[in-house]
Design goal:
By secondary structure, the chain is an alpha+beta fold. It is built from six helices and eleven strands. Strands 1-2-5-6-9-8-7-10-11 form a nine-stranded antiparallel beta sheet. Strands 3-4 form a two-stranded antiparallel sheet. The relative contact order is 0.08.
Length: 284
């Protein structure tokens, strides 16, 4: 009885492994599960079976190799078939390509029948459409670059207007500051503009005292870099500075697509912060 069980178990394990490979063509999870089960019990039954039937080492190697090859072949068949479109999909693709070809041919024939004036008019319309799409893309870029906020001062009910842009690059500082993005904020309150540069996490600007001589270097688009003064806030926070003169900076940034600001930091040297600034509408 033990002999029968061992031999049957050996054959069953091999059968389950091969079946798992075949089932992979329909369901990879189920097929892999069967293969795993087969190879979990396969060694034991094989060893037991060798006690009762004569199996040479060559036969063992052939069996293992055959099982592995079968599983691999069926898995690859399933992988390849998953990228083959169905007949319905092929038909839809053919119909779409045929329709596009007909439309292109109809346009070509219509264009050949046009007079020179009509062709020129069509070309002008196409150019205008291209320019319109470019303008829309620029407008969308402006919306991405700047966030506009309005607030009311609780003390005098005056309106405060903010325009905020986030830096394109992340500035990497050492411990304890870590990596930071920066916000460039234009604020108008009581008819006066202020320009603030602030890190989003933690940093320490230097040179923001009234008697310090440090300067920012600021470059608008590809123009030569200019030097700007700056100072710190009234609460002596070290993570924000006010760029001076604010009105000069605002007038420049309204015409610029990009701005680079080089600022000094404690124990970190001078770092460059980059902003996309296209599309700022600021009439204050």
């Amino acid at each position: 009885m033990e002999k029968v069980i061992s031999v049957v178990g050996f054959i069953a394990s091999l059968f389950i492994a091969l079946s798992g490979g075949i089932i992979m063509t329909a369901s990879i999870p189920i097929g892999l599960t069967l293969v795993a089960i087969a190879f979990l019990f396969f060694p034991y039954h094989w060893i037991e079976a060798t006690k009762h039937i004569k199996i040479t080492n060559t036969m063992r190697l052939i069996g293992v190799f055959s099982a592995i090859v079968m599983v691999s072949v069926f898995a690859m068949m399933d992988s390849n078939e998953s990228f083959v479109p169905t007949q319905e999909e092929k038909t839809m693709i053919d119909i779409y390509e045929e329709q596009k070809a007909k439309e292109a041919e109809a346009k070509r024939i219509a264009y050949e029948k046009m007079s020179d004036e009509e062709k020129l008019e069509l070309q002008e319309k196409e150019k205008a459409e291209i320019e319109r799409k470019k303008a829309e893309a620029k407008e969308a870029e402006a919306l991405r670059n700047w966030s506009i906020y309005r607030d009311i001062d609780a003390m005098d009910d005056s309106e405060v207007l903010y325009a905020i842009a986030e830096s394109e690059n992340e500035v990497k500082f050492g411990f304890p500051y870590g990596d930071n993005y920066f916000n460039l904020t234009i604020r108008n309150k009581n008819g006066k503009n202020d320009v603030l540069l602030k890190c989003t996490k933690s940093c320490q600007f230097i040179g923001q005292g009234p008697y310090d001589t440090e300067k920012l270097r600021i470059r608008f688009d590809s123009a030569p870099a200019e030097k700007y003064s700056y100072n710190g806030p009234a609460d002596y926070s070290s993570d924000v500075i006010f760029i001076k003169p604010a009105d000069k900076f605002v007038n420049k940034i309204k015409k610029a697509d990009t701005v680079k600001i080089e600022a000094p930091f404690y124990n970190e040297g001078r770092r460059i912060i980059e902003f996309n600034t296209y599309g700022l509408k600021w009439e204050k």
